[in-house]
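Protein data sheet
==================
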Amino acid sequence: MATCAAPSESDAPGHPDRSRDDRWAASGAQLRALVDAFRSEPVTPARTLQFEHDVQIVVRELGRQVVPFRYNQVEPAAAVDQPRHARFEHETYTRVHAKTRQNVWTVFGQLVVRRIGDRPSQAGEPMLFPRAHRLGLVHGASPALAARACQLLAAAGANQQQILARLRADHGVGWGVKKWRPVSRAVSDEMGVYRHDAQVDQLRTWLAAAGASTGRHKPVVCVGRDGITLRLRMKRGSLYEVASTSTVRVYDRRGTRLGTVYLAYAPEPGRPAMRGALTAVIRDVLTRWEGPVPRWCDVTDTGDNETGYDDRVLRRMTHPRTGAALAWVRVVDYYHASERVWALANMLFGDNARAVGWAKTMLTWLLLPGGVNRVLHSAAAFRAARTLTRVQKKEYDRAYAYLRNRMSHIDYATYRRVGVPLGSGGTEAACKTVFIQRLKLRGMRWAKDGAQTILNLRVVFLSGIWDVVYGRVLAARPQPIMGGHVAAEPNELEIAA
Protein backbone atom coordinates (compact mmCIF):
# COMPACT_ATOMS: atom_id res chain seq x y z
CA MET A 1 0.00 0.00 0.00
CA ALA A 2 1.38 3.41 -0.96
CA THR A 3 1.90 5.97 1.77
CA CYS A 4 2.58 9.69 1.74
CA ALA A 5 5.98 10.21 3.35
CA ALA A 6 6.88 13.30 5.32
CA PRO A 7 8.18 16.20 3.25
CA SER A 8 11.83 15.81 2.28
CA GLU A 9 14.24 18.69 2.79
CA SER A 10 17.65 18.46 1.17
CA ASP A 11 19.45 21.62 2.20
CA ALA A 12 21.99 20.22 4.63
CA PRO A 13 25.45 21.81 4.95
CA GLY A 14 28.47 20.17 3.41
CA HIS A 15 29.91 19.81 -0.03
CA PRO A 16 26.99 19.39 -2.50
CA ASP A 17 28.72 16.77 -4.63
CA ARG A 18 29.55 14.67 -1.58
CA SER A 19 26.00 14.96 -0.26
CA ARG A 20 24.62 13.94 -3.63
CA ASP A 21 27.04 11.00 -3.93
CA ASP A 22 26.08 9.78 -0.45
CA ARG A 23 22.45 9.71 -1.46
CA TRP A 24 23.19 7.80 -4.63
CA ALA A 25 25.31 5.32 -2.69
CA ALA A 26 22.61 4.75 -0.07
CA SER A 27 19.92 4.20 -2.69
CA GLY A 28 22.22 1.94 -4.68
CA ALA A 29 22.83 -0.17 -1.57
CA GLN A 30 19.07 -0.47 -1.00
CA LEU A 31 18.48 -1.54 -4.59
CA ARG A 32 21.28 -4.14 -4.43
CA ALA A 33 19.81 -5.52 -1.24
CA LEU A 34 16.39 -5.86 -2.89
CA VAL A 35 17.90 -7.61 -5.90
CA ASP A 36 19.90 -10.01 -3.70
CA ALA A 37 16.81 -10.81 -1.64
CA PHE A 38 14.78 -11.46 -4.76
CA ARG A 39 17.46 -13.82 -6.06
CA SER A 40 17.81 -15.71 -2.83
CA GLU A 41 14.39 -17.39 -2.87
CA PRO A 42 12.22 -19.04 -5.54
CA VAL A 43 10.44 -16.55 -7.76
CA THR A 44 6.65 -16.43 -7.48
CA PRO A 45 4.08 -14.00 -8.86
CA ALA A 46 3.50 -12.59 -5.36
CA ARG A 47 7.24 -12.01 -4.79
CA THR A 48 7.55 -10.40 -8.23
CA LEU A 49 4.75 -7.98 -7.37
CA GLN A 50 6.34 -7.10 -4.05
CA PHE A 51 9.78 -6.68 -5.64
CA GLU A 52 8.55 -4.10 -8.09
CA HIS A 53 6.67 -2.23 -5.38
CA ASP A 54 9.77 -2.15 -3.17
CA VAL A 55 11.97 -0.92 -6.03
CA GLN A 56 9.45 1.80 -6.82
CA ILE A 57 9.53 3.01 -3.21
CA VAL A 58 13.33 3.24 -3.22
CA VAL A 59 13.41 5.07 -6.55
CA ARG A 60 10.74 7.49 -5.36
CA GLU A 61 12.68 8.18 -2.18
CA LEU A 62 15.81 8.83 -4.21
CA GLY A 63 13.86 11.35 -6.27
CA ARG A 64 12.59 13.00 -3.08
CA GLN A 65 16.22 13.52 -2.06
CA VAL A 66 17.76 14.54 -5.39
CA VAL A 67 15.00 16.89 -6.59
CA PRO A 68 14.91 19.28 -3.60
CA PHE A 69 18.73 19.14 -3.44
CA ARG A 70 18.81 20.51 -6.97
CA TYR A 71 15.90 22.94 -6.46
CA ASN A 72 17.67 24.45 -3.44
CA GLN A 73 20.60 25.33 -5.69
CA VAL A 74 18.47 27.40 -8.07
CA GLU A 75 18.94 30.41 -5.77
CA PRO A 76 22.03 31.45 -3.81
CA ALA A 77 22.53 29.81 -0.44
CA ALA A 78 22.50 33.21 1.28
CA ALA A 79 19.70 35.69 0.67
CA VAL A 80 22.17 38.59 0.48
CA ASP A 81 23.70 37.05 -2.66
CA GLN A 82 20.36 37.40 -4.50
CA PRO A 83 19.90 40.68 -6.46
CA ARG A 84 18.25 43.22 -4.21
CA HIS A 85 15.52 44.22 -6.66
CA ALA A 86 13.33 42.35 -9.10
CA ARG A 87 10.67 43.27 -11.64
CA PHE A 88 7.69 41.11 -12.47
CA GLU A 89 4.67 42.04 -14.58
CA HIS A 90 5.50 45.79 -14.39
CA GLU A 91 5.87 45.78 -10.60
CA THR A 92 9.07 46.38 -8.60
CA TYR A 93 9.98 44.10 -5.69
CA THR A 94 12.66 44.32 -3.00
CA ARG A 95 14.40 41.27 -1.54
CA VAL A 96 13.75 40.27 2.06
CA HIS A 97 16.64 39.04 4.22
CA ALA A 98 15.52 35.59 5.33
CA LYS A 99 14.65 32.42 3.47
CA THR A 100 11.33 30.72 4.12
CA ARG A 101 10.23 27.12 3.68
CA GLN A 102 7.86 26.05 0.95
CA ASN A 103 6.11 22.74 0.43
CA VAL A 104 6.44 21.57 -3.16
CA TRP A 105 4.48 18.64 -4.58
CA THR A 106 6.27 16.62 -7.26
CA VAL A 107 5.92 13.23 -8.95
CA PHE A 108 8.19 11.94 -6.16
CA GLY A 109 5.95 13.18 -3.38
CA GLN A 110 5.93 16.23 -1.13
CA LEU A 111 9.23 18.07 -0.72
CA VAL A 112 10.46 21.13 1.16
CA VAL A 113 12.63 23.80 -0.43
CA ARG A 114 13.87 27.12 0.91
CA ARG A 115 13.06 30.23 -1.04
CA ILE A 116 13.97 33.92 -1.13
CA GLY A 117 11.04 36.32 -1.19
CA ASP A 118 10.69 39.82 -2.60
CA ARG A 119 8.37 42.39 -1.07
CA PRO A 120 6.30 44.52 -3.47
CA SER A 121 6.83 48.27 -3.56
CA GLN A 122 3.07 48.85 -3.48
CA ALA A 123 1.07 47.80 -0.46
CA GLY A 124 -1.55 45.15 -1.05
CA GLU A 125 0.36 43.20 -3.67
CA PRO A 126 1.41 39.62 -2.85
CA MET A 127 5.01 38.65 -2.19
CA LEU A 128 7.08 37.54 -5.17
CA PHE A 129 9.01 34.26 -4.95
CA PRO A 130 11.23 34.09 -8.07
CA ARG A 131 12.10 30.44 -7.55
CA ALA A 132 8.44 29.40 -7.85
CA HIS A 133 8.16 31.15 -11.22
CA ARG A 134 11.45 29.77 -12.49
CA LEU A 135 10.47 26.22 -11.54
CA GLY A 136 7.00 26.70 -13.02
CA LEU A 137 5.14 25.82 -9.82
CA VAL A 138 1.34 25.98 -9.89
CA HIS A 139 -0.04 26.44 -6.38
CA GLY A 140 3.04 24.57 -5.14
CA ALA A 141 2.79 21.73 -7.69
CA SER A 142 5.67 21.06 -10.06
CA PRO A 143 4.98 21.15 -13.82
CA ALA A 144 5.39 17.38 -14.05
CA LEU A 145 2.92 16.65 -11.26
CA ALA A 146 0.43 19.27 -12.47
CA ALA A 147 0.51 17.70 -15.93
CA ARG A 148 0.08 14.20 -14.53
CA ALA A 149 -2.82 15.24 -12.30
CA CYS A 150 -4.59 17.07 -15.12
CA GLN A 151 -4.09 14.19 -17.53
CA LEU A 152 -5.81 11.92 -15.03
CA LEU A 153 -8.57 14.50 -14.73
CA ALA A 154 -8.96 14.62 -18.52
CA ALA A 155 -9.03 10.83 -18.95
CA ALA A 156 -12.26 8.86 -19.02
CA GLY A 157 -13.92 6.79 -16.37
CA ALA A 158 -12.73 8.22 -13.05
CA ASN A 159 -14.27 10.52 -10.50
CA GLN A 160 -12.48 13.03 -8.28
CA GLN A 161 -11.85 10.71 -5.36
CA GLN A 162 -10.50 7.97 -7.61
CA ILE A 163 -8.06 10.41 -9.20
CA LEU A 164 -6.84 11.63 -5.81
CA ALA A 165 -6.37 8.00 -4.75
CA ARG A 166 -4.38 7.39 -7.92
CA LEU A 167 -2.08 10.33 -7.16
CA ARG A 168 -1.56 9.00 -3.65
CA ALA A 169 -0.74 5.49 -4.89
CA ASP A 170 1.48 6.47 -7.82
CA HIS A 171 3.23 9.54 -6.46
CA GLY A 172 2.73 9.65 -2.71
CA VAL A 173 0.81 12.93 -3.03
CA GLY A 174 -1.85 13.28 -0.35
CA TRP A 175 -3.89 16.04 -1.90
CA GLY A 176 -7.42 16.90 -0.89
CA VAL A 177 -10.10 18.59 -2.94
CA LYS A 178 -9.12 22.10 -1.76
CA LYS A 179 -5.58 21.63 -3.06
CA TRP A 180 -6.58 19.72 -6.16
CA ARG A 181 -9.08 22.16 -7.63
CA PRO A 182 -6.91 25.33 -7.82
CA VAL A 183 -4.15 23.39 -9.58
CA SER A 184 -6.48 21.85 -12.16
CA ARG A 185 -8.32 25.12 -12.73
CA ALA A 186 -5.10 27.07 -13.29
CA VAL A 187 -3.71 24.55 -15.77
CA SER A 188 -7.07 24.23 -17.53
CA ASP A 189 -7.32 28.00 -18.01
CA GLU A 190 -3.78 28.15 -19.39
CA MET A 191 -4.32 25.25 -21.77
CA GLY A 192 -7.56 26.80 -22.95
CA VAL A 193 -5.55 29.81 -24.14
CA TYR A 194 -3.17 27.77 -26.30
CA ARG A 195 -5.62 25.11 -27.46
CA HIS A 196 -6.73 27.03 -30.54
CA ASP A 197 -3.35 27.52 -32.21
CA ALA A 198 -2.30 23.94 -31.50
CA GLN A 199 -5.51 22.58 -33.05
CA VAL A 200 -5.05 24.75 -36.14
CA ASP A 201 -1.46 23.53 -36.51
CA GLN A 202 -2.60 19.94 -36.07
CA LEU A 203 -5.26 20.31 -38.77
CA ARG A 204 -2.68 21.81 -41.13
CA THR A 205 -0.41 18.83 -40.51
CA TRP A 206 -3.23 16.43 -41.37
CA LEU A 207 -4.08 18.47 -44.46
CA ALA A 208 -0.49 18.18 -45.66
CA ALA A 209 -0.63 14.41 -45.15
CA ALA A 210 -4.00 14.24 -46.93
CA GLY A 211 -2.64 16.19 -49.88
CA ALA A 212 0.35 13.86 -50.16
CA SER A 213 -1.84 10.74 -50.05
CA THR A 214 -2.93 8.75 -53.08
CA GLY A 215 -6.53 8.17 -54.11
CA ARG A 216 -9.26 9.48 -56.35
CA HIS A 217 -10.83 11.99 -53.98
CA LYS A 218 -10.01 15.52 -53.00
CA PRO A 219 -8.96 15.88 -49.33
CA VAL A 220 -11.98 16.64 -47.14
CA VAL A 221 -12.39 18.71 -43.99
CA CYS A 222 -15.60 17.72 -42.23
CA VAL A 223 -17.22 19.91 -39.57
CA GLY A 224 -19.89 18.63 -37.19
CA ARG A 225 -21.79 19.92 -34.17
CA ASP A 226 -24.08 18.33 -31.62
CA GLY A 227 -25.51 18.80 -28.16
CA ILE A 228 -26.01 16.63 -25.10
CA THR A 229 -27.80 17.18 -21.80
CA LEU A 230 -25.59 17.68 -18.75
CA ARG A 231 -26.72 17.45 -15.15
CA LEU A 232 -25.92 20.73 -13.39
CA ARG A 233 -25.71 21.24 -9.65
CA MET A 234 -28.08 23.87 -8.31
CA LYS A 235 -28.67 25.26 -4.83
CA ARG A 236 -31.70 23.03 -4.60
CA GLY A 237 -31.54 19.84 -6.61
CA SER A 238 -30.33 19.45 -10.18
CA LEU A 239 -31.07 20.92 -13.58
CA TYR A 240 -30.46 19.40 -17.01
CA GLU A 241 -29.19 21.76 -19.72
CA VAL A 242 -27.68 21.17 -23.16
CA ALA A 243 -23.90 21.27 -23.47
CA SER A 244 -22.29 21.41 -26.90
CA THR A 245 -19.50 19.70 -28.75
CA SER A 246 -17.98 20.14 -32.20
CA THR A 247 -15.49 18.20 -34.29
CA VAL A 248 -13.28 19.05 -37.23
CA ARG A 249 -12.10 15.94 -39.09
CA VAL A 250 -9.64 15.55 -41.97
CA TYR A 251 -9.96 12.78 -44.58
CA ASP A 252 -7.32 11.83 -47.13
CA ARG A 253 -7.78 11.02 -50.83
CA ARG A 254 -8.93 7.49 -50.01
CA GLY A 255 -11.56 8.66 -47.55
CA THR A 256 -9.53 7.59 -44.53
CA ARG A 257 -9.93 9.79 -41.48
CA LEU A 258 -6.51 11.10 -40.44
CA GLY A 259 -7.61 12.72 -37.21
CA THR A 260 -10.15 14.78 -35.29
CA VAL A 261 -9.91 17.88 -33.14
CA TYR A 262 -12.60 18.49 -30.55
CA LEU A 263 -14.31 21.48 -28.99
CA ALA A 264 -16.65 21.31 -26.01
CA TYR A 265 -18.45 23.83 -23.84
CA ALA A 266 -20.65 23.70 -20.79
CA PRO A 267 -24.31 24.74 -21.26
CA GLU A 268 -24.81 28.35 -22.31
CA PRO A 269 -27.78 30.17 -23.92
CA GLY A 270 -27.33 30.33 -27.70
CA ARG A 271 -23.90 28.64 -27.50
CA PRO A 272 -21.88 31.79 -28.39
CA ALA A 273 -18.58 30.38 -27.05
CA MET A 274 -18.89 27.27 -29.19
CA ARG A 275 -19.91 29.24 -32.25
CA GLY A 276 -16.98 31.63 -31.86
CA ALA A 277 -14.39 28.91 -31.18
CA LEU A 278 -15.44 26.73 -34.11
CA THR A 279 -15.58 29.67 -36.51
CA ALA A 280 -12.12 30.80 -35.38
CA VAL A 281 -10.65 27.33 -36.01
CA ILE A 282 -12.15 27.18 -39.51
CA ARG A 283 -11.02 30.70 -40.43
CA ASP A 284 -7.49 30.24 -39.14
CA VAL A 285 -7.05 26.93 -40.95
CA LEU A 286 -8.13 28.67 -44.15
CA THR A 287 -5.81 31.60 -43.44
CA ARG A 288 -2.71 29.58 -42.60
CA TRP A 289 -3.12 26.72 -45.08
CA GLU A 290 -1.37 27.64 -48.32
CA GLY A 291 -1.95 24.42 -50.25
CA PRO A 292 -4.88 23.56 -52.51
CA VAL A 293 -8.23 24.28 -50.87
CA PRO A 294 -9.74 20.99 -49.63
CA ARG A 295 -13.41 20.11 -49.89
CA TRP A 296 -15.24 21.56 -46.89
CA CYS A 297 -18.37 19.81 -45.70
CA ASP A 298 -20.80 20.18 -42.85
CA VAL A 299 -22.28 16.87 -41.72
CA THR A 300 -24.80 17.18 -38.92
CA ASP A 301 -28.37 16.65 -37.86
CA THR A 302 -31.03 19.31 -38.33
CA GLY A 303 -31.34 20.83 -34.88
CA ASP A 304 -32.05 24.55 -34.60
CA ASN A 305 -28.55 25.46 -33.44
CA GLU A 306 -26.89 23.31 -36.09
CA THR A 307 -29.09 24.63 -38.91
CA GLY A 308 -28.76 28.22 -37.71
CA TYR A 309 -24.97 28.00 -37.63
CA ASP A 310 -24.89 26.62 -41.16
CA ASP A 311 -27.25 29.31 -42.51
CA ARG A 312 -25.85 32.33 -40.67
CA VAL A 313 -22.13 31.51 -40.53
CA LEU A 314 -20.93 28.80 -42.89
CA ARG A 315 -23.04 29.80 -45.90
CA ARG A 316 -21.83 33.40 -45.62
CA MET A 317 -18.18 32.58 -45.01
CA THR A 318 -15.58 33.65 -47.55
CA HIS A 319 -11.96 32.63 -47.82
CA PRO A 320 -10.01 34.98 -45.49
CA ARG A 321 -7.09 35.37 -47.91
CA THR A 322 -8.79 35.38 -51.30
CA GLY A 323 -12.27 36.65 -50.52
CA ALA A 324 -13.79 33.88 -52.64
CA ALA A 325 -16.99 32.21 -51.50
CA LEU A 326 -16.54 28.80 -49.92
CA ALA A 327 -18.44 25.95 -51.54
CA TRP A 328 -19.68 24.18 -48.43
CA VAL A 329 -21.22 20.75 -48.91
CA ARG A 330 -24.00 20.34 -46.39
CA VAL A 331 -24.98 16.77 -45.57
CA VAL A 332 -27.93 15.67 -43.49
CA ASP A 333 -26.65 12.79 -41.40
CA TYR A 334 -27.63 9.46 -42.97
CA TYR A 335 -28.61 8.03 -39.59
CA HIS A 336 -31.14 10.81 -38.96
CA ALA A 337 -32.56 10.42 -42.47
CA SER A 338 -32.85 6.65 -41.99
CA GLU A 339 -34.81 7.21 -38.77
CA ARG A 340 -37.48 8.99 -40.83
CA VAL A 341 -37.59 6.12 -43.32
CA TRP A 342 -38.27 3.70 -40.46
CA ALA A 343 -40.95 6.06 -39.14
CA LEU A 344 -42.65 6.02 -42.54
CA ALA A 345 -42.47 2.22 -42.64
CA ASN A 346 -44.06 1.86 -39.21
CA MET A 347 -46.89 4.27 -40.06
CA LEU A 348 -47.61 2.59 -43.42
CA PHE A 349 -47.28 -1.07 -42.48
CA GLY A 350 -47.16 -1.33 -38.70
CA ASP A 351 -44.50 -3.07 -36.72
CA ASN A 352 -44.13 -6.21 -38.83
CA ALA A 353 -41.89 -7.97 -41.35
CA ARG A 354 -43.34 -6.04 -44.29
CA ALA A 355 -42.35 -2.74 -42.68
CA VAL A 356 -38.82 -4.06 -42.14
CA GLY A 357 -38.53 -5.21 -45.74
CA TRP A 358 -39.81 -1.92 -47.18
CA ALA A 359 -37.55 0.16 -44.92
CA LYS A 360 -34.43 -1.82 -45.86
CA THR A 361 -35.23 -1.41 -49.55
CA MET A 362 -35.76 2.33 -49.12
CA LEU A 363 -32.47 2.70 -47.23
CA THR A 364 -30.70 1.06 -50.16
CA TRP A 365 -32.48 3.36 -52.61
CA LEU A 366 -31.52 6.36 -50.48
CA LEU A 367 -27.87 5.76 -51.44
CA LEU A 368 -28.62 5.71 -55.20
CA PRO A 369 -28.89 8.70 -57.57
CA GLY A 370 -32.28 10.34 -57.04
CA GLY A 371 -32.80 8.04 -54.09
CA VAL A 372 -34.78 10.39 -51.85
CA ASN A 373 -37.27 11.01 -54.69
CA ARG A 374 -37.80 7.28 -55.11
CA VAL A 375 -38.37 6.87 -51.37
CA LEU A 376 -40.91 9.69 -51.25
CA HIS A 377 -42.78 8.41 -54.32
CA SER A 378 -42.99 4.90 -52.88
CA ALA A 379 -44.21 6.23 -49.53
CA ALA A 380 -46.83 8.41 -51.22
CA ALA A 381 -48.11 5.48 -53.30
CA PHE A 382 -48.62 3.28 -50.24
CA ARG A 383 -50.07 6.22 -48.30
CA ALA A 384 -52.81 6.65 -50.91
CA ALA A 385 -53.97 3.09 -50.29
CA ARG A 386 -53.95 3.38 -46.50
CA THR A 387 -56.29 4.93 -43.96
CA LEU A 388 -54.28 6.32 -41.06
CA THR A 389 -55.40 7.42 -37.64
CA ARG A 390 -54.86 11.03 -36.63
CA VAL A 391 -51.70 10.12 -34.68
CA GLN A 392 -50.37 7.98 -37.52
CA LYS A 393 -51.04 10.72 -40.05
CA LYS A 394 -49.22 13.27 -37.92
CA GLU A 395 -46.15 11.05 -37.57
CA TYR A 396 -46.23 10.16 -41.27
CA ASP A 397 -46.47 13.81 -42.36
CA ARG A 398 -43.63 14.78 -40.03
CA ALA A 399 -41.26 12.11 -41.39
CA TYR A 400 -42.29 12.75 -45.01
CA ALA A 401 -41.75 16.53 -44.64
CA TYR A 402 -38.35 15.97 -43.06
CA LEU A 403 -37.10 14.13 -46.17
CA ARG A 404 -38.90 16.35 -48.70
CA ASN A 405 -37.67 19.65 -47.21
CA ARG A 406 -34.05 18.48 -47.09
CA MET A 407 -33.76 16.80 -50.47
CA SER A 408 -30.86 19.03 -51.51
CA HIS A 409 -28.82 17.80 -48.52
CA ILE A 410 -29.65 14.08 -48.90
CA ASP A 411 -27.84 13.47 -52.20
CA TYR A 412 -25.86 10.58 -50.75
CA ALA A 413 -24.87 9.11 -54.14
CA THR A 414 -23.02 12.31 -55.04
CA TYR A 415 -21.44 12.55 -51.60
CA ARG A 416 -20.09 9.03 -51.88
CA ARG A 417 -18.74 9.72 -55.34
CA VAL A 418 -16.66 12.70 -54.18
CA GLY A 419 -15.54 11.17 -50.88
CA VAL A 420 -17.69 13.20 -48.48
CA PRO A 421 -18.76 11.34 -45.30
CA LEU A 422 -22.45 10.51 -45.13
CA GLY A 423 -22.82 10.37 -41.37
CA SER A 424 -22.03 12.46 -38.34
CA GLY A 425 -20.77 9.42 -36.47
CA GLY A 426 -17.58 11.24 -35.49
CA THR A 427 -19.58 14.04 -33.89
CA GLU A 428 -22.11 11.66 -32.32
CA ALA A 429 -19.16 9.72 -30.92
CA ALA A 430 -17.73 12.95 -29.55
CA CYS A 431 -20.78 13.30 -27.30
CA LYS A 432 -19.88 9.91 -25.89
CA THR A 433 -16.10 10.32 -25.64
CA VAL A 434 -16.08 13.93 -24.45
CA PHE A 435 -19.11 13.97 -22.15
CA ILE A 436 -20.58 10.56 -21.34
CA GLN A 437 -17.32 8.78 -20.55
CA ARG A 438 -16.14 11.56 -18.26
CA LEU A 439 -18.89 13.93 -17.12
CA LYS A 440 -21.92 11.63 -17.02
CA LEU A 441 -20.76 8.84 -14.75
CA ARG A 442 -23.04 7.64 -11.98
CA GLY A 443 -24.22 10.38 -9.65
CA MET A 444 -22.18 13.17 -11.21
CA ARG A 445 -23.46 16.76 -11.05
CA TRP A 446 -21.53 19.80 -12.19
CA ALA A 447 -21.20 23.51 -11.73
CA LYS A 448 -20.67 25.12 -15.12
CA ASP A 449 -17.18 26.39 -14.34
CA GLY A 450 -16.15 23.00 -12.93
CA ALA A 451 -17.42 21.24 -16.04
CA GLN A 452 -15.57 23.69 -18.28
CA THR A 453 -12.35 23.12 -16.36
CA ILE A 454 -12.46 19.44 -17.32
CA LEU A 455 -13.69 20.11 -20.86
CA ASN A 456 -10.75 22.43 -21.56
CA LEU A 457 -8.38 19.62 -20.58
CA ARG A 458 -10.35 16.84 -22.23
CA VAL A 459 -10.54 18.36 -25.71
CA VAL A 460 -6.77 18.93 -25.68
CA PHE A 461 -6.26 15.36 -24.52
CA LEU A 462 -8.58 13.84 -27.15
CA SER A 463 -7.23 16.03 -29.97
CA GLY A 464 -3.77 14.53 -29.44
CA ILE A 465 -2.07 17.87 -28.78
CA TRP A 466 -1.46 17.65 -25.04
CA ASP A 467 2.35 17.82 -25.16
CA VAL A 468 2.33 20.69 -27.66
CA VAL A 469 -0.17 22.77 -25.69
CA TYR A 470 1.46 22.12 -22.32
CA GLY A 471 4.87 22.98 -23.76
CA ARG A 472 3.51 26.32 -24.93
CA VAL A 473 1.91 26.91 -21.55
CA LEU A 474 5.24 26.42 -19.77
CA ALA A 475 7.13 28.55 -22.29
CA ALA A 476 4.66 31.43 -21.88
CA ARG A 477 4.71 31.64 -18.09
CA PRO A 478 6.23 35.02 -17.13
CA GLN A 479 9.64 35.11 -15.49
CA PRO A 480 10.92 37.72 -13.03
CA ILE A 481 13.75 40.05 -14.00
CA MET A 482 16.44 39.95 -11.31
CA GLY A 483 18.58 43.02 -10.78
CA GLY A 484 17.79 44.34 -14.23
CA HIS A 485 18.43 41.02 -15.98
CA VAL A 486 16.25 38.00 -16.69
CA ALA A 487 17.01 35.30 -14.12
CA ALA A 488 19.89 33.09 -15.21
CA GLU A 489 19.63 29.38 -15.88
CA PRO A 490 19.91 27.23 -12.72
CA ASN A 491 23.45 26.03 -13.40
CA GLU A 492 24.65 29.67 -13.49
CA LEU A 493 23.49 30.21 -9.93
CA GLU A 494 24.67 26.89 -8.56
CA ILE A 495 26.97 27.41 -5.59
CA ALA A 496 28.36 25.32 -2.78
CA ALA A 497 26.07 25.01 0.19
Q: What stands out?
A: The two ends are 36 Å apart (CA to CA).
